[in-house]
Amino acid sequence: MARSIHTTSRSLRKLSTKKFxxxxxxxxxxxxxxxxxxxxxxxxxxxxxxxxxxDPTPAPTDVSTVEIEVRDESEFVHHGASPEDIRxxxxxxxxxxxxxxxxxxxxxxxxxxxxxxxxxxxxxxPYAKRLGCEILPGIYxxxxxxxxxxxxxxxxxxxxxxxxxxxxxxxxxxxxxxxLHALKTFVHEMAHHHDKxxxxxRGRWRSDRKNTVERYAEKMEHQWTREIVLPYLERTYxxxxxxxxxxxxHRGGIRVGLEFFSGDSCxxxxxRLKRVGFTTPYGFxxxxxxxxxxxxxxxxxxxxAQKLRCCHLYDQCLELLNSLLAxxxxxxPALICQANTLVRLGRLDDALYAANHAMERDPxxxxxxxxxxxxxxxxxEWEAVLLNGEAWERSGPIAPRDQYExxxxxxxxxxxxxxxxxxxxxxxxxxxxxxxxxxxxxxKSALARVFRRAGKPVPEQYSSKKR
Length: 467
Hints:
alpha/beta; 4-stranded mixed β-sheet; 4-stranded antiparallel β-sheet; 8 strands
């Protein structure tokens, strides 16, 4: 496969004088050509830089001599990992990954994030006033967890901000969870270091693309977390690891491994895309946030089952739901969650039985009607979807929060049966309360969704893909 970039300044100028069918097409072509030319120039700069380098091959790194600087620690600023943790993980990494490491710093990172404030939003924690977000109730992470500085070889891991006296989890469990994620950040940044030292020689093509570099760092973070970080934590913090799993087993109703708390951080894909996923750490964090609203142990376990389903852990979710329904067989929220989980497992008959059971217990329950309609949709029973909607209307007033999905299911059934006027009418009803300036974009998004769920190709005018 040819890898040359043929765009030149001259070809870019010629393109700017060329006639196009419309201005938008010309703008897109010029942007693509300019991006290609800029990339070509970046690659040439990298090649020149590598050819001029006279650096000797770095000597093997003596881990005991690597400086680990601890900064900014205070009453509310806490480093997730200790210098001893960092040094232990550094020792376990491959020699090629730590080759030439100069310095490691544990800091708050406030100044770094302030310099890039426009990129990271405006939310700040209440204690250090650093740009960041609340990952667990009362615990704040920076918008960036760590950085690697190419020129100096500095690896930075940024601290968490919280008040030890205002935590929703027991302190040892919080500290263990944060230690895991601080070490995940460390191996991610070490992967960036390894990428530069061992893989980017001679201005390679892959090195000028940020997404390519990030994909490698995420891949190695995931691998090294499983192979190095988790075994280290199991050995060194055995009691804390067991305590966290025991606490979740009691409040959540099912035992999970440490892999659940680390998750898979691989999100960057080709073409500037990000993989959208409900990761297990986020599932855990959002579940902990919901716990104060759970009045009973059964409710906290049902909430955990719902997070397992969102994380695509369907077998574990179903196991937990079955244990809850064995005690309370008519519990409607558990039946609805069971039905949705069975759909994901392809067990549509069992899912329909669970949804019908919920409707028998509460004929006006909107979640049960919506779930039943979705199951019939997955079975391609389009007339039954419409009949389900009619019965839903007769059951009583449809709650405002259910109106959109109610009309959308009707639109999908009409689309599948090629009843375009009826589909348009249903879409119009779904968007009835949308503001005028938003309705065009929302209509386009809704129509794309309708065609996809009806099993039909999405017309080009509704597709969000760039061409």
